[in-house]
Request: fold
Amino acid sequence: MYMAYSQSNGTTTLRGTAHASKGMTIKRGYAKLLLRFILIAVILGTVFSFGAIVQAYAGDGTVTVSTPITSAQPLAKATQNEKVVIQSGDTLWGIAEAHKKKSENTRSYVEKLKAFNHLTNSSLQEGQVLLLP
Reply:
């Protein structure tokens, strides 16, 4: 702060020429910095929350590839079952619609697929092999 003294008629007067804009600039700078920090924190929180939600709904993370026990069946009969290798975007419903008999219900064929392949849920992994009943 700059203070100027002037003398006139034998009296001394004090004139302050404080620069209020400098004080406001510092406060505005802190406010902008705080606003940017809060904005970045909100964006990062949203991104991490979205990732957690996606992972929670994607499944439990375990890949279950099981083959039915065919020791009681002859080997020739076990090779007659058609196999489907899961590709990206495949679903049990789509596989059931493609491979069911015309007179068969799609929902019941999905349940047969799950039971025949010992699946506990409908999630499929790319590269997984399903045997068709």
